[in-house]
Amino acid sequence: MSSVYHDYSTFKNVTSFADSLQNFQQVDGLNTFEQIWGAYYYYMGNDLFATGLLFFVTHEFFYFGRCIPWMIIDRIPYFNKFKIQDTKLPSSKEQWECLKSVLTSHFLVEAFPIWFFHPLCQYIGISYQVPFPSVTDILIQLSVFFVLEDAWHYWFHRALHYGVFYKYIHKQHHRYAAPFGLAAEYAHPIEVMLLGFGTVGIPIVWCVLTGNLHLFTICIWIVLRLFQAVDAHSGYEFPWSLHNFLPFWAGADHHDEHHHYFIGSYASSFRWWDFVLDTEAGPKAKASRERKMKAAAEKVQKKSQ
Ligand SMILES: [Zn+2]
Ligand SMILES: [Zn+2]
């Protein structure tokens, strides 16, 4: 019996998912998402399996679901003018090779640890019961995860660009100088684990420290993070791209330069780390760095005169 809810005394017999949903619809004060969540766990009847399947399907569905629109856009000539590196459209062969590698990694590398996630949640106290936490709680935690993951990604991604780390690990992700959505998770297994810790490990550490986290929040976080990663690799810059409204948001404009120049712009979601530490990629950032260095040199020269 599932532990998704604390009191099944009024529940009627369940033989299908619809029956299970009907039972949760009778519970006072549950919203639609909570009813579906509860019905899913109750119907599955095995919480470990339910969590594993939920995470595996969420990952596959939202990763590929977000990649497909970009693959369609690649084939519509109207959108060519928004392509950042306009001469480099990914060929079908390149996309196929990338798809095979990403699928292999999902099924061989990630499909395995996903089944240990539920026992881990229980051990550190990540809740999966209904009702969910408040919207405010969810939004605060999502913001914290975005900021911390970005910092983690900045430093470890920057480290992956050093000598042997680049040669043996990170080089694989840089195979495509002009990235496309599917290439977001095209990476060496060590890189998947190292940078993946920023996505999965940070919420775990958060829960160990605060004792307050729900599995539903982790699901939303993973979906948003997948969207961020796929979009950053899309290769398109539109007038309506998010960073035009939120100047500190990184987006494709930021990460495409990283793939193009192989250096600089290391952060994932935001621009502040690269801005403050002067590691922005591309000719514009290089010119501004040179201007700053020249101004500093002239200042020193004036002082010594
Ligand atoms: Zn890189
Ligand atoms: Zn990349």
Automatic annotation (TrEMBL):
<feature type="transmembrane region" description="Helical">
    <location>
        <begin position="176"/>
        <end position="197"/>
    </location>
</feature>
<keyword id="KW-0472">Membrane</keyword>
<feature type="region of interest" description="Disordered">
    <location>
        <begin position="283"/>
        <end position="305"/>
    </location>
</feature>
<feature type="transmembrane region" description="Helical">
    <location>
        <begin position="203"/>
        <end position="224"/>
    </location>
</feature>
<dbReference type="GO" id="GO:0016020">
    <property type="term" value="C:membrane"/>
</dbReference>
<dbReference type="InterPro" id="IPR006694">
    <property type="entry name" value="Fatty_acid_hydroxylase"/>
</dbReference>
<keyword id="KW-1133">Transmembrane helix</keyword>
<feature type="transmembrane region" description="Helical">
    <location>
        <begin position="48"/>
        <end position="73"/>
    </location>
</feature>
<dbReference type="GO" id="GO:0008610">
    <property type="term" value="P:lipid biosynthetic process"/>
</dbReference>
<dbReference type="GO" id="GO:0016491">
    <property type="term" value="F:oxidoreductase activity"/>
</dbReference>
<dbReference type="GO" id="GO:0005506">
    <property type="term" value="F:iron ion binding"/>
</dbReference>
<protein>
    <recommendedName>
        <fullName>Fatty acid hydroxylase domain-containing protein</fullName>
    </recommendedName>
</protein>
<dbReference type="InterPro" id="IPR050307">
    <property type="entry name" value="Sterol_Desaturase_Related"/>
</dbReference>
<dbReference type="Pfam" id="PF04116">
    <property type="entry name" value="FA_hydroxylase"/>
</dbReference>
<keyword id="KW-0812">Transmembrane</keyword>
<feature type="domain" description="Fatty acid hydroxylase">
    <location>
        <begin position="144"/>
        <end position="279"/>
    </location>
</feature>
